Structures are given as C-alpha cells and as structure tokens.
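User: Just a sanity check before I run the rest of the batch. Below are the structure tokens for the first item. I only need the designed sequence back.
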C-alpha cells in the first residue's frame, strides 16, 4: 500500500468513527424531530435530512471522479432545499435508517475508489474545483459540525483536536473573506487559542483587539455554533452560517 493510499484509508476510518459517534447520539434522541437545532429555522429533522442527502451528494462527486462523467453534487439548489424540507418531519427511526443507508453507500464507494480517481478534479456545489481526495474532508466536516447542530449531547469540546486544528485556519480565512465583502466591514481582530499556538488575524488591516479561548471554543464561535460565552475579548457580530 502506498503512503497516499494509507493516508486515504486513515481518513476514511476517521469519517467512519465520526459517523458512528453521530449515530450513537441520534439513537439517544427523543422521537420529536421538531426540536430546534442550533441552526436558525432548522429543526433536528432538517439537520438529519440534510446529513443524509449530503452523503448522497458526495456519492455523486465520487462517481464523477471514478468515471470522468460530470455529475454535479446536487441537481439544483432548489431540489437540495426541497429534499431537506420534505425529509425533515419524518420520524426519528426513519431518519436514522435513511442516514445509515446513505452513509454506508458513500463509505462503500469511497473504500473501493481506485487510487487514480482520487487525483481527479471535481467541483463543489458552489463551483469550486477540488481534488477528489477533499471529498473525504467535506464529509468529515458535515458529520462533525452538524453533530453539534443537533443540540444534544455532542459539544464543540468533543471535536477531535486534529479536526479542530485542520479547520481553524480555513475558518479564519473564510471569515476574513466574508468580512471583507461586507458593505461595512468590521475592524480586524486577532484570535489566539489558549491550548495551542494558533493565532490569526481576521479582517483586513491591523487588529485592534484579541479574542482568546480554547481552540474548540474559538472554532465553534467562528462557525456560528456558539455565542462565545467562554471566550475573552470584545466579540463582534459575525456573518451567519448554515
């Protein structure tokens, strides 16, 4: 097994472990999927429906990589959104079964994807070209972040440190772009994590203050999954996420 193949295997095992943790939480939920999630306007049912359809959308990207036939992640944003709305009210047992089947479809296809296919270029739903290997990272983000969104027993503090360390630089870079594109950009600020050596400036220009906290708390706030109560420093209003 080549080093690239070994790394892919490790990444797929990480997704499988994160998915198992997610399903353990789902099995412990009350059967009322209408309970609000952490996402404005979305219930737990919306989050679960989205997770299942996301797995299917990433099957499309893997098929694109394997066959060379362009297969968009979603046929359209209208169908993506309507599938989520239609799936949201289903009973918990149906939601779980759907998610298990969709996750297994994606994982089985990923585990049998030939090495050369992982180097193919596909595009995300936003049109961003990526190597097929990044599809694995996309799925891990969906599972870990939306697990927290269920507003159940899984918290940002439970995110694996490797996941937090990988996502933090991307989250800060994405937020800097979002702030720069705003009509009235907020002043730049610095974030510093107290349990690692991560420091970054968010926004343009010199930062006028610093926000500190644990890496998982900082990431949760940057992603809109926390109000930042455990952070120190003046917290600006951030762009919304979903």
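Assistant: Here's the designed sequence for the first item:
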């Amino acid at each position: 097994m080549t080093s690239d193949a070994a790394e892919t295997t490790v990444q797929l095992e990480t997704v499988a472990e994160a998915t198992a943790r997610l399903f353990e939480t789902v099995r412990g939920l009350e059967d009322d999927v209408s309970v609000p999630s952490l996402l404005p306007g979305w219930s737990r049912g919306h989050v679960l429906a989205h997770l299942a359809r996301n797995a299917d959308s990433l099957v499309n990207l893997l098929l694109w990589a394997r066959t060379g036939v362009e297969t968009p992640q979603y046929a359209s944003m209208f169908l993506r959104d309507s599938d989520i709305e239609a799936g949201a009210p289903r009973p918990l047992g149906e939601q779980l079964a759907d998610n298990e089947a969709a996750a297994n479809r994606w994982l089985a296809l990923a585990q049998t994807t030939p090495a050369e296919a992982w180097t193919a270029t596909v595009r995300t739903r936003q049109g961003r070209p990526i190597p097929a290997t990044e599809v694995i990272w996309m799925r891990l983000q969906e599972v870990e972040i939306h697990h927290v969104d269920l507003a159940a027993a899984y918290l940002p503090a439970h995110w694996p440190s490797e996941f937090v360390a990988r996502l933090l630089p991307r989250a800060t870079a994405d937020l800097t772009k979002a702030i720069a594109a705003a009509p009235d950009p907020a002043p730049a600020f610095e974030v510093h994590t107290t349990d690692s050596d991560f420091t970054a400036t968010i926004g343009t220009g010199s930062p006028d203050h610093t926000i500190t906290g644990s890496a998982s708390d900082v990431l949760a706030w940057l992603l809109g999954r926390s109000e930042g109560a455990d952070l120190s420093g003046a917290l600006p209003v951030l762009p919304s996420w979903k």
